[in-house]
From TrEMBL:
Record GO terms (molecular function): ATP binding; hydrolase activity; metal ion binding; nuclease activity; RNA binding; RNA helicase activity
Signal peptide start-end: none
Protein's UniProt name: CRISPR-associated helicase Cas3
InterPro entries linked to this entry: Cas3-like_dom (IPR054712), CRISPR-assoc_Cas3_HD (IPR006483), CRISPR-assoc_Cas3_HD_sf (IPR038257), DEAD/DEAH_box_helicase_dom (IPR011545), DEAD_box_RNA_helicases (IPR050547), Helicase_ATP-bd (IPR014001), Helicase_Cas3_CRISPR-ass_core (IPR006474), P-loop_NTPase (IPR027417)
Family: In the central section; belongs to the CRISPR-associated helicase Cas3 family.
Name of the coding gene: cas3
Coiled coil: none
Keyword Glycoprotein: no
Organism: Paracoccus litorisediminis
Length: 847
C-alpha cells in the first residue's frame, strides 16, 4: 500500500472530470474522442493535403488510423494514481502529479506487455525511435515536455488498494486493439521532423475539440462500443465548428461576387487573373487602390479551386484589424450562401461577425444575440483564432506560430489550410519581418497560400520576403509600379485612369505644438478638413491643447466632447474614436472646417479623405502612407484646397542633432545599450527630407517607386551617410537591424529540426523567457472596476499602460478610480488621469 488512507471503493480511470470528481468521463472514452477528431480532420481534404506536404508523400488510410491510435495514447499518463487522485476526496495521501510528466514515466516502466501489448504493436516497424512520436503526443498542451528522470516511474505508478491502474491500463490496451485493428499489420509513417511538428499541432487542436463536454458528453463506465459513438460525435463537431469543408460560394469566383462596381480596378484585375497554382503573391499598389477586395477575389478563386478553405487577414495594428473586420464581414455575406462569421483576432475580445461574447465563470460564453453557435468556438480563446474559418487580426497572432512559444504548433497547423493575407508588410521592423517570414515559409512548405500587400515596400525588404539577391539602386528604382510579383517575377499593373494625384509637398522648419496648431487652424478657418499626425502621443496632446485653447469647436468631437486620436484610450473609447474620425474627415463627411489630431493610429486602414495633411517628418514609406489619407476620394473641396497639400514639420536646426539625441520620435535616445526610439534611421529621414525639398510636387502613384528607393535603398543611404559624415551612425543602425534579426533567429521554431536530440533529450521551448512578436518592453494591462464609465459616456473595462509607466507593475494590481471631476486612476504609487486627451501620467512628462 502506498497510502495510509486506502480508497473505500474500486475506481475507474477517468479522462475528464467535473463537479469535484462527482462527474467523470472514462479515460478510454476521452482518448477515443481525441483520436476520432484527429482522424476526422485527416480525412478532410485540406488537412490531409497539408499532412501530405509535411510528410513529403501521400499519407495512406492505414497510416491515418495508426496516427489515430497514437493520438489515443496522448493522455496515457492520466493512468497514474497521482493524477487520478485529483478527482478523489481528500485523505488519499498521494503526491499529485501532472499527466504529461506521468506519460513519459509510464513509457519508462519495464513492462514489455504494457497496454496488453498494443503499444508494441503500434511502434512495430516504425521508421524512427518511439521517443520522437512520444515527444509529439506529449506536446498536446501547447509545447514540448522534457522527459523526467527514469527513477521516478515506480513512484508515479504505485500499487494501490481501491484503484488498480494496471487493470485500467489493460482496458485501454484492449480498446486500442479492438478500435484500431490496423495497427496489427500496419505502422506509423516516417517521423519526418516537419510532419512531427505538424502532427503535434493537429493533435493539440484535436485535444481541444475532443475535450469539449458539450460535444462529447461524459460516459463514466467503459463501453466497448464507444468508438462508433466517438467517431460520429467527432465528425459532427468538426463540421459544426467549421474545421471541415468550406461553405458553398454564391456563384462562380468572378468579380461580381466581390463588388457591385461594374469592373475591377487594375490592381484587382491583376490579382484576379493569377493562376491558383501561384502560392506566394506580392501585390504592390498605392493606398486606396482596392487591395482588400483584390485579396477577397483571390480567396474566392482559391476556394473554388479547392486550394484553401479558410482565411487569415493580418494587419499591423489592432485599429486596422477592427476596421478591416467590418469590411470582411460585409464581403462574406456577398460571397457565401451561408456566410461564416469573421472572428476578430484581438486578445481580450470575443467577437464573431457583428456579435460580441462575454466570458462566464464556467469558461462558457454569453453572446449578445443570445445564440450559442458552435462556429464561434474559435473566437473564445486567442490560441484558437487561426482555427477560424475566417479571422481578421494583427500580424502578431500569425507570427506567434513561428516562435518557440506555447501553442505555436497549434497555430501553425491551424493556419495551414488558410489563405494568409499580410497587409502593409512594409510596416514591420527587422525583428518582426524575420518572425513573420519564418511563419510564411513554414506555411508555404505545408502547401499553403500567401498574399503579401504593400503600398510602399522598398526593394531591400521585398527581396528579403522573396529570398532574392540584392540589386543596385538604379535597377531597383526603375522597376514598374504598381506591380504584382509571382514565381514568374514582376508583372506590371496598368495605370488606373484618373486615379493619380499630384500632391504639393513642402517642409516647414519648426514642429512645436503651437506651430502645428496655427497651421491647422488657419486652414480649418478657411473651410478645410485638416489631418494632423504627430510622431508621439505627447506632441499630439500638446497640439490638441493648443487648438482647444483657441478654437475647440473646430476639433474632432465624440458625443460633443473635443478630443484627439491615439493609442492611449480604452478599447471601447477607441472604437468610438475610429467612427468619429471617419465621420469627421471620411469619404462622406460634410463640408466645413475641422481639425483631427492624432498619431500613427491615423496613418493606415481608416478610410480618411482629408483636404490637407500636416505631419511630422517620418520615414518615406510611412509618409506615403500618411499621404494616402489625403484626397483619397473624389469629392467637393473648399476653395483653395482643390489640390492635395502636405506640410511636413521638421526641426529648425536640421537633423544632425538627431544622431546624438532623440526628439519628437526621431533619432535615438541617449544612454541606452543600443539604438532605441521610434524612427531611429536618421540617414533615411534625411533622404526623405531631401526628396521633399528636391521635388515639391509628388505624382502619386507614378513616383512611389522612385521616392521609396531614394529614401530606403541601402546604396542611397550609404552615399548619404558618407556625404554627411554619418558613417558611424549608419553602421549603428545597420548593426541594430542585424542584431534584431539574430535575436529573432534564436527565438524561431525550427520545424525542420527533430523534436528529440540525438542524445535523447526533448528539444523544449526556452523556459521562463518572455518571447514576443515585437521587440521592446510591454506595458501592463490595468483592469478597471466594474461599471467604470469612459471619456465619452460608454463603459470601459481596462487600460493599457506604456512600458515606461509600468515599472513595478504586473497587471494584477487593483486600480482605484476617482472623479475630481476628471477621472483619476491610482495603481499602487502611480497616478494617472483619463480624459479627452487620453491617458496621462500625473505629475510628469507623458512622452
Amino acid at each position: 500500500m502506498a497510502t495510509d488512507s486506502p480508497l473505500t471503493r474500486s475506481r475507474n480511470a477517468w479522462g475528464k472530470s467535473a463537479a469535484g470528481g462527482a462527474e467523470t468521463h472514462h479515460l478510454a472514452h476521452h482518448c477515443a474522442d481525441v483520436a476520432a477528431v484527429l482522424i476526422a480532420l485527416l480525412r478532410e481534404p485540406h488537412w490531409r493535403a497539408r499532412a501530405n506536404a509535411a510528410l513529403g508523400r501521400e499519407l495512406t488510410d492505414a497510416e491515418t488510423v495508426c496516427l489515430g491510435a497514437l493520438a489515443f495514447l496522448h493522455d496515457i499518463g492520466k493512468l497514474a494514481p497521482g493524477f487520478q487522485a485529483k478527482a478523489w476526496p481528500e485523505g488519499h495521501g498521494l503526491l499529485l502529479r501532472g499527466h504529461l510528466e506521468c506519460g513519459w514515466l509510464w513509457t519508462n516502466l519495464p513492462r514489455p506487455d504494457a497496454l496488453a501489448g498494443a503499444a508494441a504493436q503500434l511502434f512495430r516497424g516504425a521508421e524512427t525511435r518511439p521517443e520522437e512520436w512520444l515527444a509529439a503526443i506529449f506536446s498536446h498542451h501547447g509545447q514540448p515536455v522534457q522527459m523526467p528522470e527514469n527513477g521516478l516511474a515506480r513512484k508515479a505508478f504505485p500499487a494501490l488498494d481501491g484503484y488498480d491502474w494496471e487493470a485500467e491500463e489493460a482496458v485501454l490496451g484492449q480498446a486500442l486493439l479492438a478500435w484500431f485493428p490496423e495497427i496489427r499489420s500496419n505502422s506509423l509513417p516516417p517521423a519526418e521532423p516537419a510532419f512531427l511538428h505538424f502532427f503535434a499541432g493537429l493533435l493539440t487542436l484535436a485535444d481541444w475539440v475532443g475535450s469539449d463536454r458539450s460535444a462529447f458528453p461524459f460516459v463514466p463506465e467503459f463501453t466497448p462500443g464507444y468508438w462508433e459513438l466517438a467517431q460520429a460525435r467527432a465528425a459532427g463537431r468538426v463540421a459544426e465548428i467549421e474545421l471541415g469543408a468550406s461553405p458553398a460560394l454564391r456563384g462562380p469566383a468572378g468579380w461580381g461576387m466581390i463588388s457591385d462596381h461594374p469592373s475591377p480596378r487594375p490592381a484587382q484585375e491583376a490579382v484576379g487573373r493569377l493562376p491558383v497554382s501561384e502560392r506566394l503573391v506580392l501585390l504592390e499598389s498605392e493606398t486606396g487602390s482596392g487591395k482588400t477586395e483584390a485579396a477577397l477575389w483571390r480567396l474566392s478563386a482559391l476556394l473554388e479551386a479547392g486550394e484553401v478553405d479558410a482565411l487569415y487577414f493580418a494587419v499591423p495594428t489592432r485599429a486596422a484589424a477592427r476596421q478591416i473586420h467590418g469590411r470582411i464581414n460585409d464581403a462574406l455575406k456577398r460571397m457565401f450562401k451561408e456566410p461564416p462569421e469573421a472572428v476578430l483576432a484581438i486578445p481580450g475580445q470575443a467577437i464573431a461577425g457583428e456579435v460580441r461574447g462575454r466570458r462566464l465563470p464556467d469558461f462558457k460564453y454569453l453572446w449578445d444575440d443570445g445564440l450559442s453557435k458552435p462556429a464561434r468556438w474559435a473566437a473564445e480563446h486567442s490560441a484558437r483564432y487561426l482555427a477560424a474559418r475566417v479571422a481578421v487580426g494583427t500580424v502578431d497572432q500569425m507570427a506567434l506560430g513561428g516562435l518557440q512559444v506555447k501553442f505555436a504548433h497549434l497555430r501553425g497547423a491551424a493556419l495551414s489550410r488558410a489563405l494568409l493575407v499580410i497587409d502593409e508588410v512594409h510596416a514591420s521592423d527587422p525583428y518582426m519581418t524575420e518572425t513573420q517570414l519564418a511563419m510564411v515559409e513554414s506555411h508555404l512548405a505545408l502547401g499553403g497560400h500567401v498574399l503579401l500587400m504593400s503600398a510602399t515596400l522598398g526593394a531591400a525588404a521585398r527581396r528579403r520576403w522573396r529570398r532574392e539577391a540584392p540589386a543596385d539602386l538604379a535597377s531597383d528604382s526603375n522597376l514598374p509600379y504598381p506591380a504584382v510579383w509571382t514565381s514568374c517575377g514582376l508583372q506590371p499593373i496598368a495605370a488606373e485612369p484618373e486615379s493619380g494625384k499630384s500632391v504639393s509637398v513642402r517642409s516647414h522648419d519648426g514642429w512645436s505644438a503651437r506651430e502645428a496648431a496655427n497651421l491647422a487652424l488657419d486652414a480649418a478657418r478657411r473651410g478645410a478638413r485638416i489631418l494632423v499626425i504627430r510622431n508621439t502621443v505627447s506632441r499630439a496632446q500638446e497640439t490638441f491643447n493648443a487648438c482647444r485653447a483657441v478654437a475647440p469647436e473646430l476639433l474632432l468631437a465624440v458625443n460633443g466632447i473635443p478630443t484627439l486620436h491615439h493609442s492611449r484610450f480604452a478599447a471601447e473609447d477607441r472604437a468610438l474614436l475610429d467612427h468619429a474620425v471617419e465621420a469627421a474627415i471620411g469619404k462622406d463627411s460634410p463640408l466645413g472646417g475641422r481639425v483631427v489630431i492624432g498619431t500613427q493610429t491615423l496613418e493606415q486602414s481608416l478610410d480618411l479623405c482629408a483636404d490637407i495633411l500636416i505631419t511630422d517628418l517620418c520615414p518615406m514609406d510611412v509618409l506615403l502612407q500618411r499621404i494616402g489619407r489625403l484626397h483619397r476620394h473624389k469629392r467637393p473641396r473648399p476653395e483653395g484646397f482643390s489640390e492635395p497639400q502636405c506640410i511636413v514639420l521638421c526641426p529648425e536646426d536640421g537633423l544632425d542633432a538627431l544622431t546624438r539625441r532623440a526628439e519628437n520620435g526621431l533619432g535615438a535616445y541617449p544612454g541606452g545599450p543600443d539604438l532605441s526610439g521610434i524612427y531611429v534611421d536618421v540617414p533615411g529621414l534625411q533622404a526623405t527630407l531631401d526628396q521633399i525639398q528636391t521635388h515639391p510636387r509628388w505624382e502619386i502613384p507614378r513616383m512611389n517607386r522612385q521616392l521609396v528607393e531614394a529614401a530606403t535603398h541601402p546604396d542611397a543611404l550609404d552615399l548619404l551617410a558618407e556625404a554627411r559624415g554619418w558613417q558611424s551612425y549608419r553602421q549603428s543602425v545597420m548593426g541594430k537591424a542585424t542584431a534584431e534579426m539574430q535575436t529573432a533567429g534564436l527565438r524561431l521554431l525550427d520545424r525542420s529540426a527533430p523534436m528529440v536530440s540525438p542524445g535523447g533529450r526533448v528539444n523544449c521551448f526556452p523556459a521562463d523567457e518572455d518571447i514576443r512578436t515585437r521587440l521592446g518592453e510591454q506595458g501592463a494591462i490595468i483592469e478597471l472596476p466594474s461599471g467604470t464609465i469612459g471619456v465619452f459616456g460608454a463603459p470601459i473595462r481596462r487600460l493599457a499602460l506604456p512600458a515606461l509607466w509600468s515599472r513595478g507593475l504586473t497587471g494584477e494590481e487593483v486600480a482605484e478610480v476617482f472623479r475630481t471631476p476628471e477621472m483619476m486612476i491610482s495603481v499602487l504609487d502611480k497616478a494617472f488621469t483619463y480624459g479627452p486627451e487620453g491617458l496621462q501620467r500625473k505629475g510628469s512628462d507623458n512622452a
